[in-house]
User: Fold this.
Amino acid sequence: MTRFHPAFVLVLVLITLAATPLSAQQDANRSAVIPWNMQVNPVLVQVVTELLAASPAFAAQCAHIADARFVRITINPVMASSTTSRGSARTAMRRFAAGALLAVVDIPVPLTISEYGELFGHELEHVLEQIDGVDLQAMTDARGGASRLADGAYETARARRAGLLIAEQVERPHAAAARARSAISRGSTAAGVEGAGGTGAPSAAGTQMAQRPTAPGISNAAPAQPAPGMRRR
Ligand SMILES: [Zn+2]
Assistant:
């Protein structure tokens, strides 16, 4: 019985699009999307999209976050130019009596994509520790993978491991993608190249491809050198 005037349907569609701004950030790959409850500053959307495509571990973190309906995360860029902020990321979290968890993650910019991978992976793992209800003080007391820094923040082996793993995953497919692009630009077929890179395992093909120059400009706004003295909390 319900009929929709065409114009009314169009309005509904527009309202739907407007109500889901995060969908604009999402890749065609529906299995790896920016979580609905993670608001990423536009400056870092491309970075997060690349990390999702390159790192299964990062995609798993994001899926875990999306399942935590009581969590809201905001990702902000901070200028990495000053000596005090350069290379340091931090996450401030507030838990409310009703159970909501708000996390604000400050990520220095610009960095190389693998540095982004390490910092995003590290900081989001801290959020996941809270989602999982990890007792950081108990772990610290037991010297079981957590310690308390001078400023009162906790540091954990779990977050360090997550950051390093994601950085590693980001570096490998990027090298493979660069090689594939290089091969395509030569007019040769790239068949098999991505497959070889995707496994992460060294192969005869991979070794051969690695000797070719890679396409420039793969990483976005990467600084000339890695940030020294990265300080993470
Ligand atoms: Zn940390």
